[in-house]
Model the fold of this input.
Amino acid sequence: MTCLKPEGKEPGATGARGRDFNAFDEMAPRAPLATPAAKRNGAAVKSADVRPSGIYRPNNNVQTPAMRSPDYVQMSTAAAITLGIMAGKMYGCECTRCLNLLLTYPEGCRANCAYCGLARHREAERDYADRNFIRVDWPAVPMAGIIAKVAADGDRTPFHRMCISMITHPNSDADAVTVLKAWTDRIDPKTVPVSILSNPTTMTRDDVVTMKELGADIFTVAIDAATPELFDRTRGKGVQSPHSWAHYWKILNAARDIFGPEKFGAHLIVGMGETEHDVLGVVQQLRDMGGHSHMFCFFPEKGSLMDHLPATPRDQWRRVQLARYLIDYCGARIDHMRFDENGRVVDFGLPKSELDTIIGTGMAFRTSGCPGKFRDDLSACDRPYGDSPPSNIASYPFQPGKADMRKIRRQLGQSKSKH
Ligand code: SF4
Done:
């Protein structure tokens, strides 16, 4: 078996109080402040009432227009570059394979998740469409134009998948359905399958059925926080936010029943205060249910209630990334792994040669998410630099090269010893 002994740190690898993991008691969000009435609920954008015209680029020193789904959606910077509506280059990648679309409203998301750049408390300082989310800007684009462009590209489209990201808003359920229907009316789901990144708080089981009937391929739930306590602290009462752990799992169980094996999944963020054993327990649970976990490395998003906290140390992240890949795609189980008194993985439960071969493929360290057309264990949703800067990559949006692999192995602290 392979023994793990951390051997020195990469730059930026140190967690809270210099430890090599982010512990619960050191990762508390700051409390949200009250928002002035003139800024609440998108009031500034609604009172200015500027009509949108074409593409809106965030933070462009103009009044934010009043844009609303389903007519308008926001898309990731990577998707905008790939679609050719924004100039730019991404380190190590030519394009993204997933067209990530985010519902948008002047009122924004009404939840207040502590790690999220879209959270409600930010209405005091930034209009919704100008907020950074997973480290990047999200330009707003007319939905009809996106569909027309992807439909015109046909089989030549660079996208292997489209994803509708819902937010917590009273219109989000109905608008997600409208966007999905508009897409599947024009674009064959076999050419570009659709994923739903759901917002369980406003959804019922019937809504999940509707998504399936309208042609959605995969249904995902962003659980994000790996334990009920952490969920409540970062997404529930702890930050005056409406989400409930029990309801998120209710909708996830509905997705398992309605979408079936390999067609549902859950997002998890690593390093917000859970132990490695905690998060891998959820990974195993999801796999036993027939689904997959999609992992994000905690990054202190600017403007969020956790922007003063350290990013996940790379050794913690690499251990969880590797263990998750082993559980999801290599038949490994958490009960065959060993953990130390702080819940850290110390043994992956596989013979060294087998583990070395799997590490050497680099697949475990690539961005995880809904699959594209290349292989089942390779995510279409590559989210370039959504959870780290390119200078210290957490999730690789490209195949790691030799130098990347040397760095990954150092971060894993692999020892050559056997026992
Ligand atoms: S519900 Fe989603 S978009 Fe809204 S604050 Fe929470 S994580 Fe962000």
In short: Residues 109, 111, 113, 116, 118-119, 167-168 surround iron/sulfur cluster (CB under 6 Å). The chain has one domain: 2-418. Residues 208 and 235 are 22 Å apart (CA to CA). The longest helix spans residues 314-329.
